[in-house]
Amino acid sequence: MEKKSKITNKKHLAHSEVVRRQSQMIQHIALGIIVLVVGLVAYGILSTTVFVKYRAVATVNGDRITAGEFQGRVKLQRGQLISQFQQYYQFAQMFGSQDPLQDPNFGQTLSSIAQQLQNPETVGQQTLDFMIDERIIRQQATKMGITVSADEIDKAMQEQFRFYTNGTPTEVPTATAFATSGPVTLSPAQLALVTITPTASPLPSLTPTATLEFTETPTTAPTATPAPTQGPTSLPEPTATPYTITGYQTRVAESMTSLATSTGLNQNDFRALVENTLLREKIMAEVVKDLQPADDYIWAQHILVATEDEAKAVIDRLNKGEDWNKLAAELSQDTSNSKNGGDLGYFGHGAMVAPFEEAAFALTDIGQISAPVQSDFGWHIIRLLGREQRPLTADQFTKLKQTAFSKWLKDLRDTGNVTTDDTFWKEIVPAEPVLQ
After folding, report:
1. In 164-307, which ranges are continuous DSSP H helix?
2. Cβ(103)–Cβ(92) under 8 Å?
3. Cα separation of 278 and 289, whole Å?
4. 171 to each of 154, 288, 385, how far by Cα in Å?
5. Where do the DSSP E strands lie in 306-394?
6. What is the CATH topology of the domain spanning 294-391?
């Protein structure tokens, strides 16, 4: 009996050890599962809060734009749009409008801003495109050796906050000479084609417009007038600075606190924004330095028809010697000018829809007729009657430079390695601050 009891005890002990080990293994597995679940939950929380800020919404030639940067800039842009809305709304009220949203002078602008704010993806796309342009500009500035100093940033920030160490600058009036157009003289080739004379318009002076405020939107470089100017023999003394350096520093600190609260951006981020604006100005000045304040203007006629086949038929009839003016009167659907040969007068770049403009400006010889050109209005046949260079107004020259600079940026973006994660940024684009 004693021997049997010992055998039983050994079996019991062995079984107990197996059970203990199994229980221990189960506990370890359960603990591991708990740790894994907690880890996954923690990672999920971090990935949607902390880690997401470091994920790229776009890459520009290897330079990442993170979600955190993007979200801060979108909030800043929304804040600026809200500020613009409030300013226009107050202007409308100052002018006696009872319902600014329906006001003929302010309503359209207010509605446009409100629609942008109601669609976060619209503001997000605008902001992302602008940030991509900023990266391209910075990269090109490095290649071109263009830099912005800390002193330049400090000065720009002071101007942004209306703090002038040497007193508030006083605008100096200038008298600008300008050219006026004389009688239009037609060449023999033009006289053979037309019996009407285009009306020449007086040309305003070239007067640069100064912009003092820093904004998110692209800032154009100051324009210089090529005409001689006349001004006062002595400049007025600058007025006193409205507040002290201590007041300026206090205002900056308050603004940076507000900026951090509303957008998550800090003072270094704000300085980077100012630097971006200054770099844009310097790069733009370099890119457009060879542009002149003049542009090609052409004088053209057109015949507008509904289909390409009709347009080809018009060209066939012209090739057989039929009169252009008679065909325009008979066939052109542009009734505003069909009775005078489809005459459009002189026009410059940007006056016509893109396909029409491209085809019209491609014509080189007086009397040359284009192939059929399609636009949203139908099919055009265009005839060139004249070409000349005209001086541009200040606004027109600014637009010309901005157009050239935008094209330069677009070409770099198209030829560079630029990728965007559209699905991701649309998921995380902020919808605040909101218009109250």
Report:
1. 188-193, 245-263, 267-287
2. yes
3. 16
4. 22, 26, 44
5. 343-347, 373-375, 378-391
6. Chitinase A; domain 3 (3.10.50)
Interatomic CA distance for residues 333 and 378, integer angstroms? 9
Query: Residues 135, 129, 148, CA angle at the centre, nearest 5°?
Result: 30
Query: In this predicted model, what pLDDT tens digit does every residue of 94-113 receive, in sequence order?
Result: 999 999 999 999 999 999 99
Whether a cis peptide bond, with omega within 30° of 0, leads into 433 is yes
Q: Name the token pair of 333.
A: 């659907």
Question: Three-state SS for 218?
Answer: coil
Give the pLDDT confidence of 258-305 residue by residue, as tens digits: 999 989 899 999 999 999 999 999 999 999 999 999 989 999 999 999
pTM: 0.66
Tokens 């139908």, located at residue: 378
Q: Given a cut of 50, is residue 45 above it in pLDDT?
A: yes
Mean pLDDT of 2-27: 67
Tokens, residue 317: 């009839």
Provide the token pair at 155: 């000065």
